[in-house]
Amino acid sequence: MKKLTFKRGIHPSDEKYFSKDIPIRLIPATGDMVYPLSQHIGAPATPIVSVGDEVLAGQKIAEATGFVSVPIYSAVSGKIKAIAPHQTTTGENATCIIIQNDGQNRWINDTYRPDYPDRSDSDYAEKLMSSERVKHMTAADIRAAVREAGLVGLGGAGFPAAVKLTPPDDGKIEYFIVNAAECEPYLTSDDRLMLERGDELLYGCEILLRLFPNAKCLIGIEANKQDAIRSLSEKAEKHQNIFVKPLKAKYPQGGERMLIYALTKRKLNSTLLPSNVGCVVINVATVITAFRAVTLGQPLTHRIMTVTGDAVASPCNLEVPIGISYDRVLEAAGGLSPDADPEKLITGGPMMGTALFRLDLPVTKTSASILAMRRDPVAIDDPTPCIHCGRCLSACPERLVPQTLSAAAENDEFDRFEALGGMECIECGSCAYVCPAKRHLVQSMRYGKRQTGAIIRARKAAEAAKAKEEPEKGGKEA
Q1: Who is most buried in 48, 103, 376, 435, counting CB within 10 A?
Q2: Greatest C-alpha distance within the chain
Q3: Which CATH code for domain 303-373?
């Protein structure tokens, strides 16, 4: 079968051998749990508990604020210890609900437990799907279940899933795309989910396809996951309108714009949403969690993380309670190798992840991994002046000229940065990866986008104020 792809990009070593063959293991919640009220794009959640309250695992502790927001649920039983600022992986202090874990693992409802139902029953997903409750659910019911579960995009962006599943016109969606590329090196959690919970994924696709009457489902999987491709291709034969599409293993194949182009040849830019080109894109873990939200009413309390890297004693894939600290996740994975003193700790992939400056920080809904590396490959060489080789241009999937944009940003020439298309940068890091001068191109581009974005917003606000003022003046003169 032909492998689909996009133009340009890079081919870093995938390094998935560390953990790709290790089955997912559920770990217990230990220590105090910390829940930032903002774990998603949009308005932060609002606490509905007070200090001193007793809570159960699976209990809602914060309510969504507005349409672009989601609720938060506790993964443990215990007592509300504080609602106070706490440091997060961004380095900033955020308001958090802190729960003193009683260690008793008491659930408000057994069907909310992450290990329910028993997955040793090979037909459990089909049984859940065939229940009368699920059969008669409307599109509004499905979206409400996803929203109430507190589900966000689990691929990293953290956009509220119910909002993503509510485009302006359901009938204009032609492709429901499942992002199974997992193109970041080292990460293997989606690969394991496809192998171990493939039926939940496919039935989840069936459920979500009900929202889009004219759509078919395309599951895009990179070719370095042959076992997942074979397994899902076989299972998909009994599902209508669901098709597995092998993708060329290339970074950033999992980028939304790149994936849509590879599967449909439709082009997207920063001014458009996927729905503008007839697409909705959802990550593998998000679909599976949506399946459980719809069939069981199960809220999002746990997520799958990969713990990997050459400094980890036993690389693995773990089902982790949200709110636990990174150091306790690493401890549950077996810790660091005895002879390892890692130079770099990252949450997320090495290309677009966030460096961890300490490990006593809370795991959130968007935490994808702990990557521990003995050596920091970025810090090995100091940057030198640009040699104008053009490699960054050849690698950029958005066809930008990173060296020129970087120079504009570094010189605070933000009008030029905008004119050269800098706002189209997806910050994938392909340019920095291939740069022989080891220029910090991504950091410059990110700075340029942030400053230019602020200027654009101020300009639009001024234009809106002027447009409002002119009719008022006209009315007074009349």
Answers
A1: 435
A2: 82
A3: 3.10.20.600
